[in-house]
Design a protein that fits this description.
globular; 4 domains; 755 residues; 13% strand; Chloramphenicol Acetyltransferase; 8-stranded mixed β-sheet; alpha+beta; 6-stranded mixed β-sheet
């Protein structure tokens, strides 16, 4: 009732004496403040658009250039080599007779026009020069720890042309386009990658297919791909789909056990991050593509019978909260400002205390987003296109993000670390299949005991950047009162959250149940094992003068061979954000060199020296493959795009068909750590995060995510399927732990060496 009262600015009643008009001053005030907030946001976006639009110059540089031109003209020097005089003559012939400009005024106008043109020309030149500089990637292939003179000069030029204070999207127009590799180079690298995985006869057959493709159909498909690369900003981006990523809370620290309070601080921190994102105040550490940040919030995936679409709102002033089968709309602003943490806690507590029951079909509605896409698309069109269902669905899909107040308790427990971590991981991965809105770009989960997590689309570095900011802001900036509540006072004037209303017919409820059943079967089949590896961390690995990522990847190869007794096609995600709209590329971690090392490790006749030598060769090879992938010379994105073009042209390629059907039985990814320096991890070693994970890609394979936390901890997340008789996530975890310790011993360190 309070919300309805404040939502109406005026009411009128027709009486025999006339019209009785009553104004709500509070509602008028809220409308005024809301409008003021919207215009302020528009102004900030307009200002940032100008700053980004003229980058790498600055708006103030226009004045410097124009004043410089006018000064030289005042000194009787023509800096334009006659162009200003031509502008003067043009003004004389084009100015209407009714407007007479004096000679002095004409000179000023001509000087300003020339200065503006010169300024624009300088911007274009600087931008093109920066793009050329950023196209150089030789620095990545230099020997570790050594910087050549050419690289030093390049770094200095990049710093000069990058300007003083780049904003989040400043580098976008200066980033080079992702190059299209030569077909022959990609085919050769592909054959090299599969050679250790195939029998000799199979490899010969694949070589014939590959070489035939490289000289016949490949060049034709490549021509179309080159054509696309000229008019599209990235020849890959249109063909890739969003990923799903799940990130968890601090591993050992529990800031508060009050669910509503943890939600209050964390949601406020997420909104502070979104505000920084809107204002482009998230400064890029390196010239990397920032396009993924644009759809982190206010975004939903809309189901379609043929293909899904992405709906993105420029702004959203509310979130939708799910609790015990009910959906609530919560406004994020009051008095023209963001709700404070204590006010958000108050709203969450109101939801937790709400005794109302779910409406028919409401409790498990979100299962539609977890099941097959076509039934959801048909349901959406048939039952959610009008009336209260459309209004409520719009509220969900246009929300800034989705929040689940989970009824379970999760997190690391010392008395049962394995079971507690596994349960925590599975809850974030899929929940109960109806308490997460999987079509939202970000779902934030708050558990009953105050633990938190998220489920999102974006690639790991983007999500990790947000999550580090949220955790650091929650614990080190906002904090909690002694009683565990958010700091500050409640505000009883804030309207209550609004229950979303639904009218879901029986036919739709049957589809919901069908979607839930199919999603539950998939979720129940996930075997997830998560554990912290304390024996040593990247600090000790760096003392071995090797890449920590290469070390872990070779340990994964050794663990997989011990687990399965064979090698497999391995996927490691690397980034291509050095290019505009770049996302990821595949590093095929299983190479001839890595196989030689693994075979030496399981061969008792091999000495430590032989194994160590093979390890160093395999490590160097892995780093080279990683650099190739990052610099646009990967294998899989190119082959996939060639396959897509072949489908468009309705031509069949036996080579591409076979390549795309090969399963990734070991899919891996590293989560970056410490991207935002809001606190010192060395001084606060207990504030470590266990990172995030994902499900297996192949039915008979493993999905492995890992995060190198600080100097002494590596957190692993291993997933597989119970239905596969060949896989076991816990068994693989034991092999991985043993592989890590076996490799570190090659360098003369004991398994428990941390310093």
């Amino acid at each position: 009732m309070a919300e309805a009262h404040q939502a109406v600015a005026f009411q009128f009643t027709v009486t025999p004496d006339g019209i009785d008009l009553r104004l709500s001053h509070e509602a008028l005030k809220q409308i005024y403040l809301s409008g003021l907030h919207s215009w302020k946001k528009k102004f900030i976006r307009f200002k940032n658009g100008i700053i980004t639009g003229v980058y790498p110059a600055s708006p103030s540089s226009w004045l410097i250039v124009v004043v410089g031109v006018m000064s030289t003209m005042y000194a009787k020097i023509d800096p334009s080599l006659g162009i200003i005089a031509k502008i003067n003559r043009t003004l004389d012939t084009t100015t209407p007779l009714s407007i007479h400009l004096s000679a002095g005024t004409e000179n000023v106008v001509s000087g300003v026009l020339f200065g503006t043109g010169l300024w624009v020309a300088l911007i274009i030149t600087m931008r093109y020069s920066l793009k050329v500089l950023l196209s150089y990637h030789g620095w990545m292939f230099a020997q570790h720890g050594k910087i050549s003179r050419a690289t030093r000069i390049w770094m200095g030029l990049v710093k000069i042309f990058s300007g003083r204070k780049p904003m989040l999207y400043s580098f976008q127009t200066s980033l080079p386009r992702l190059p299209v590799p030569a077909v022959k180079d990609t085919v050769d690298r592909y054959l090299e990658s599969v050679k250790p995985l195939m029998k000799e006869s199979d490899f010969k057959r694949m070589t014939v297919l590959a070489q035939d493709f490289a000289v016949s159909l490949g060049p034709k498909l490549q021509w179309y791909l080159k054509l696309k690369s000229w008019w599209a900003t990235n020849y890959v981006s249109m063909h890739t789909r969003p990923l799903s990523w799940r990130t968890r809370d601090l591993l050992y620290v529990m800031p508060t056990q009050i669910q509503a309070a943890r939600a209050g601080n964390s949601i406020h921190a997420i909104l502070l991050y979104r505000r920084r994102l809107d204002r482009e105040e998230i400064k890029p550490v390196l010239p990397l593509c920032s396009a993924q940040w644009e759809r982190m919030f206010n975004t939903s995936r809309i189901p379609g019978e043929e293909t899904d679409t992405i709906q993105h709102m420029r702004d959203s002033k509310h979130i939708v909260v799910f609790h015990k089968g009910r959906y609530f709309k919560v406004w994020l602003y009051y008095d023209g400002r963001l709700l404070k943490p204590r006010e958000i806690e108050q709203q969450m507590q109101r939801i937790l205390d709400d005794p109302s029951e779910p409406q028919p079909g409401e409790a498990k509605l979100a299962a539609l987003t977890a099941g097959e896409r076509v039934p959801w698309a048909k349901c959406r069109q048939a039952y959610f296109g009008h009336g209260k269902n459309k209004q409520s669905l719009d509220a969900v899909e246009k929300a800034a993000f989705f929040v689940t107040l989970d009824e379970t308790e999760q997190g690391y427990r010392k008395e049962d670390p394995e079971a507690s971590m596994d349960s925590y991981a599975k809850s974030l991965l899929h929940g109960r299949c109806f308490d997460r809105w999987f079509d939202k770009s970000l779902t934030f989960i708050v558990f009953k005991n105050g633990k938190i997590g998220e489920h999102s689309w974006a690639d790991a570095p983007i999500v990790a950047h947000l999550w580090e900011y949220v955790l650091a802001t929650d614990c080190f900036q906002l904090g909690y009162a002694e009683d565990g509540h958010c700091k500050g006072d409640p505000n009883p004037n804030i309207p209550y959250p609004t229950r979303l209303q639904w009218d879901i017919p029986e036919e739709c409820q049957q589809v919901i149940e069908t979607s839930l059943n199919s999603a539950t079967i998939l979720a129940s089949d996930v075997d997830f094992h998560s554990f912290p590896f304390h024996t040593f961390g990247k600090g000790l690995i760096k003392k071995c003068r090797t890449s920590p990522d290469a070390f872990v990847q070779l340990a994964l190869q050794l663990a997989h061979y011990k687990d399965m007794g064979k090698f497999c096609l391995t996927y490691e995600a690397s980034m291509t954000r050095l290019f505009r709209e770049g996302r990821t590329e595949t590093v095929r971690s299983c190479s001839t060199e890595s196989c030689n090392f693994v075979l030496a490790m399981v061969d008792p006749t091999q000495t430590f020296e032989q194994r160590l030598r093979l390890f160093k060769v395999a490590s160097e090879k892995h780093q080279h493959l990683y650099r190739l992938a990052m610099t646009g010379s990967g294998i899989d994105r190119h082959l996939f795009c060639l396959y897509v073009v072949s489908k468009y042209l309705a031509v069949d390629s036996p080579f591409l068909k076979e390549v795309l059907s090969e399963p990734w039985r070991l899919s891996t990814s590293q989560t970056p750590q410490q991207q935002v320096e809001l606190f010192d991890l060395e001084r606060n070693p207990e504030y470590v995060c266990s990172g995030g994970g994902f499900g297996p890609v192949a039915d008979d394979g493993y999905g492995v995510s890992y995060i190198l936390v600080g100097e002494n901890l590596i957190s692993f997340h291993i997933s597989s399927k119970f239905s596969s008789p060949e896989t076991d996530s816990h068994r693989f975890g034991k092999h991985l732990t043993q592989a890590m310790t076996d490799i570190i011993r090659l360098f003369g360190f004991s398994a428990n060496s941390k310093k």
